[in-house]
Amino acid sequence: MTAPTVDRAASRSGRWHIPITVEQRAASRFLQQLGVNLVALVLAFGLGAILLLMAGDNPLDVYREMFDRAFGSSRALRETLRSTTPLILTGLAVTVCFRMGLWSIGAEGQLIAGSVAGAAAALVLGPSLPAPLAVAAVVIAAALGGAAWATLAAVPRALFGTDEVVTTLMLNFVALGIMNYLIFGSVSYWRDRTNPGFPAGKVIPESTQLDPYFGVFDAGLILSLALALIVALALRRTVWGYQLRVAGDSRAAASYAGINSTRQIISVFAVSGALAGVAGGTYVMSITFALEPRAIAVNLGFVGIVVAAVALLKPLLVVPIAFLMGALLSTAPSLSIFGVSPAVVIVIQGIILLCVAGAQFFIRYRVRITRVEVGSR
Amino acid sequence: MPQDTELAVRTIGISKEFFGQSVLEDVDFDLRWGEIHALLGENGAGKSTLCSILAGLYHPTRGEMTLAGAPYGPHSPHAALEAGVGMVYQHFRLVEQMTVAENILLGNPDVPVRMTASGLADRAREVMDRHGLWIEPTKYVGDLAVGEKQQAEIIRLLNRGVKVLILDEPTAVLTPREAEALFAALRNLADQGRGVILVTHKLREVQQSADTVTVLRSGKKVAHQRVEDTTTHDLARLMIGDDLAPGSGSVDASHATGDELLELHSVSVVSDAATRPELDGVNLTVRAGQIVGVAGVSGNGQRELAEVITGLRTTTSGTIRLRGEDISSQTIGDRIKNGMGFVPEDRLTRGLVLGLEIEDNVLLRSQRDREFSIGPFLRLSAINQWARRLIDGFDIRGVRKGLPISVLSGGNLQRLILARELSRQPALLVASEPTRGLDVGAAEAVRTILKAERGRGVGILLFSGDLEEVLGISDEVVVMYEGRVVASRPASEVDVAQVGRWMAGLT
Amino acid sequence: MNDWVLIQSLVVAVSTGTPVVLAGSGAILTQRSGVLDLGVEGTMLIGAVSGFWVTTSTGSPVAGLVVAVLAAAVFSMIQAVLAVSLRANQVVVGVALVILGSGLSSFIGSQGDPPVARRFSGSIFTPVFPESVHDWPAVGPLLLSHDPVVYLSWAFVAVVQWYIFRTRTGMHLRAVGHDPASADAAGLPVSGMRYLHVALGGAAAGAGGGYLTLRLFSDWFDDMTAGMGWIAVILVILASWRSLRLLVAAYAFGAISSLGFTLQLLGWNIPTELLAILPFLVVYLVMVFVSAAERRSQMPASLAEPYFRESR
User: Fold this and answer.
1) Does the pLDDT of residue B4 top 70, yes or no?
2) What are phi and psi of C154, to 5 degrees?
3) Residues 243 to 282 of B: which have CB under 8 A from any C CB?
4) Which of A209, A215, A213, A217 is nearest to A82 (CA)?
5) Residue A64 contacts by C-beta under 8 Å, 6 or more apart in sequence?
6) Domains defined for chain B, CATH in brackets
7) Helix orientation angle between C90-109 and C61-80, rounded to the nearest 10 degrees
8) Mean pLDDT of the residues in chain A
9) What pLDDT does residue A38 have?
């Protein structure tokens, strides 16, 4: 096994032969992996620049503007940090599942479920509870909402082996539809009834709205940092985390070790869903202040996949990467003022994820130009 | 058959290095047309590598090759095939989900662009008639017996116009009778003028079927002789070297066996009522301080037996007792607690977690043990210390901090599994193929460890495809055939020939 | 339900299902080669926006459809390079392609003067057969009232089925998808086959996107596929990688998606938001049911597994 796997990548046709050797690395260092991902990140911005050039914009100007809008003032920083919080949480949610080899792409739907549950808790309990308790109630409700939604994919996966990619995807659309129905399609408890002509969510009580400390960051960010630490410790230092890592590396080894896969799958999904759900809850408390489909369904779950992948599925690395992605996201609205399509931000995210996915190749394999020395010795 | 020269294949000074590690050194090898040429050597001697170079899978680091006198340097298996060199691998290159006809004709340029299943089958029949071999062409390969698959593979290569046929350990998966049929077919092919290379580490096969033998040891050619000029004894010495005696016949009678440890009473496993049961009323006893070796052609229920005992698979009926206690329905975790160690057959995918570090691997199967966890939390320092103890105690080399254990060599990985399973001080150790794929020295070290454990009173159930190993270190030999135990005798009372007949389902 | 309502619903189901038929049949080719193309949603969007741009610029829907097909095929090459040559995780690549396709199509839609997104094209594809035959009982509306792309999609479905099971290349395709190592040993160009079929799948998804924007909506707007590409990928799994079954599944999807239209004809009023959930909910439930029933899988055995010529 430790003997390197070798092929000559270019020689498949059997007619011509390019002297390139691809060898599997037995293992690679963490820093090496991180370096490759950072190169991928830079490459993504480079490709984005080419796109901007083709559209007739000066990429340097656009990037400078984006930098200013992300970090240039305390207001900018506040927006960036506001976008960072949900990305840390969805990034953690994706990390937990992917580490076990569960390819859940359901953070989006779980975030929505968390928003709905969190907003409900805020509307019901907010007026009667003191602020800290009300916020805690929203967080717990959001976590439960997200976990419950994840369970809809987890149970079929654990019991029948139903492909989680398919179920989580479909459940994303179902969750989105339900949220839309609550605000646009009905006069539900979540909807603001004061203005029947304009469908919008009812604003949550002030006790559940998070104010930024020093005008920069709010309790949601602190919570997400704490959760990142907890997830990191749980993976490293608990039996649950150990079993998750074993199952993620080899299903066969997990069953050999007596790990109950049904229980493990459901618990991992539930934790992942709870994290995504909390993202929804804090998002409502610190940004939208209401169940607001137009502002909530902005692909935070999908960007969580980008965050987790760039962060090499390491919970503590999720934090800085989420910060970078949050900065990128928070610049989107300002770009249209500048005359550039905000979609550029989505494009760059897509390219980042592609580059990082492709870069894994250079982490796992070593590519060399081969010197052919047949007959010479 | 084009026979411009007498030599089919010649290699001159072939060397191959992986990561600067030399696997083949300066090997000269000649194959004549019309001969069966055995390539003999222990695991890791380099015979597979040499064949892979001939078959275009690897590129030699140095050296030259000729085919029928002309320079030969295939840069892909396909190029080798085009040139007339085909290899039958241990894992057949057949698509299980497709039919025999489709497989035989796959990649064949003569197949019309538009075709039907029946047209394809007719064409396949034609091919088989031409070569005098026969397998029902409309059957799916996945439904064939191993021997049939091997034949399909040979037909496939012959249909591609192969002049040099290489077979990598072809009898490893066959019953003795199937093996005889194979050798007859190979002799026929050689008589037609083809060159046949037979890779093997079984001396008997060389004597039985080959004309010429080349012996490899540690990547070097040590002999090239006509088979009639050698004896089994000479070949064994050449293959293993003078320093190491063959591992057989080393039963030491000086240990006492104790009480019944593991008892199986009519254990059956039926996963599909339509096919024959995987296990059919198996009775078996392992005593403390005893090695019970299970022999059989692979696929006759050995894997299932190991799995029901260790809890990876549930029994359909029957009871399994460990130290008198019925464990048939216990979880894997409970069986571990009750003193069961298990060295699984797939050590790389099941027995170890290659992507994780050594600490995570020594913890495998002990994660709920009080010694290593308090409630939900792991005791990292205790785990760390234990890992260190095992590394020292079992001489596990190559461990690097912060890197996954995939950097270790095969022998070290196997010692790691043994270290982990034995240090839990099990009453019973189930060991499946503990020496497969290891070089001679590493395999001998593993056998020494097993014998030492027996001396300490551990009961060992050994599954091995290597008959000499089973007979060499077991106290009791059990033979399996089609899910049943067909014989169970003290090792001192049986010989290879007798066990071979049992393995083939004969009495 | 009276006959007229039933027939009208089925006609709408056919046109609603057609993008899924096209994209899904293409995805069958891709997945049969062993590549799981989760990026279909993004590829469809690329096809849609480029097709719409060219059509509104040139006035030729045929040119639009051709460009949609080509642009999508080129876009899908990203999948091929990453999944086949760089052996990347295909789930991650698929998600990335959806993000990229969504962003890039939206970006392209904001370009031009006037921007693509502000343009409008009238209903471009007209029925093949004369109006008079549309009124023939049953067969008229069901079989004879469609535009040329629908007939093309039927032909495509038949060709895909024939190609996979009745041609030499189709046999090679199945071998590459099930067991690339064996296919390689038989001298088949594994990577080449995968590249080719990823491109074909991308082209078909582009046609689906083009049809969506040129015929169904006569318009372009951001993320207009609204999950249709995902559905196409998943219906391929439910259809066991056979295009005739996919055709049925896609029209069933079309019927469920256009249920609102049917219910309106019947005079019922159900919020559109709830109806929008229905196809996804049904697919979820069917998927769970099917896996619980544990049928023997027809899945290409090496689906989503990158191929690396094996060592010893």
Assistant:
1) no
2) -65, -45
3) none
4) A217
5) none
6) 7-240 (3.40.50.300), 254-339+427-507 (3.40.50.300), 351-425 (no CATH)
7) 140
8) 86
9) 86
**The predicted structure's pLDDT at residue A374:** 39
- More confident: B241 or A251: A251
Query: Cα distance from B161 to chain A (closest Cα, Å)?
Result: 17
The whole-angstrom separation of Cα C13 and Cα A349 is: 35
E strand residue ranges, chain C: none
Q: For the residues B300-323, what does the mean pLDDT come to?
A: 92
Ordered by start, the domain boundaries in chain C are 21-118+133-242
Poorest-pLDDT segment among B19-23, B44-48, C28-32: B19-23
Tell me which chain C residue has its CA closest to the CA of residue B93: C182
Pairing state between β B459-463 and B260-269: unpaired
Q: What is the ipTM of this complex?
A: 0.88
pLDDT at residue C311 greater than cutoff 50: no
* Nearest residue of chain A to residue C109 (CA atoms): A341
Q: Count other Cβ atoms within 10 Å, centred on residue A137.
A: 20
Q: Are residues C294 and A160, on separate chains, in Cβ contact within 8 Å?
A: yes
Report yes or no: C101 and A359 within 8 Å, Cβ to Cβ. no
Tell the residue number behind the tokens 């805020």, with chain if given: A122
Q: Parallel, antiparallel, or unpaired for β B195-200 and B36-40? A: parallel
A257 chain-B contacts, CB cut-off 8 A: 332, 364-365, 367
Q: Are A175 and A293 in contact (CB under 8 A)?
A: no
Distances (CA, A) of A233 to A275, A316, B98, B250, B268: 15, 10, 49, 51, 45
Q: For residue range B369-395, what is the model confidence (pLDDT) as tens digits?
A: 888 999 899 999 999 999 999 999 888
Checking if the pLDDT of B128 tops 70, the result is: yes
Separation of CA B206 from chain center: 18
Instruction: Give tens-digit pLDDT for A20-52.
Output: 666 666 666 778 888 888 888 899 899 989 988
Each residue of A167-184: pLDDT tens digit? Answer: 999 999 999 999 999 998
Instruction: Specify the pTM.
Output: 0.85
Chain C nearest-CA distance from B37, in A, is 22
Amino acid at A345: V
DSSP secondary structure string for all residues of A233-276 = HHHHHBHHHHHHHHHHH-HHHHHHTT--HHHHHHHHHHHHHHHH
Decide if C312 and A3 are in contact by the 8 Å CB cutoff: yes
Cα–Cα distance, B34 to B192 (Å, whole number): 7
What is the spatial distance between Cα B45 and Cα B218, in angstroms, rounded to a whole number? 4
Q: How many CB pairs under 8 A join B and C?
A: 73
B 36-95 residues with CB below 8 A of A?
58-64, 73, 75-76, 78-79, 82
Residue A109 and residue A149 in contact, taking contact as beta carbons nearer than 8 Å: yes
Nearest to A107 by CA among A150, A139, A145: A150
Q: Calculate mean pLDDT across residues B286-315.
A: 90
Can you say whether residue C303 is alpha, beta or left, with left for phi > 0 and alpha for psi between -120 and 50 degrees?
beta
* Residues 6 or more apart in contact with residue C124 via CB below 8 angstroms: C55, C61, C64, C214, C215, C218
Residue type, A35: G
Sheet holding B459-463, edge to edge: B340-343, B428-432, B459-463, B291-295, B476-481, B484-490
Q: Is the pLDDT of residue B414 over 90?
A: no
Query: What's the per-residue H, E or C state across C133-176?
Result: HHCCCCHHHHHHCCCHHHHHHHHHHHHHHHHHHHEHHHHHHHHH
Question: b/e for A300-338, b at 16 or more Cβ within 10 A?
Answer: bbbbbbbbbbbbbbbbebbbebbbbbbbbbbbbebbeee
DSSP A5: P
The arithmetic mean of pLDDT across residues A117-123, rounded, is 96
Which domains, and CATH codes, for chain A?
A: 1-57+341-377 (no CATH), 59-339 (1.10.3470)
Cα C220 to Cα C216: distance, rounded to the nearest angstrom:
10
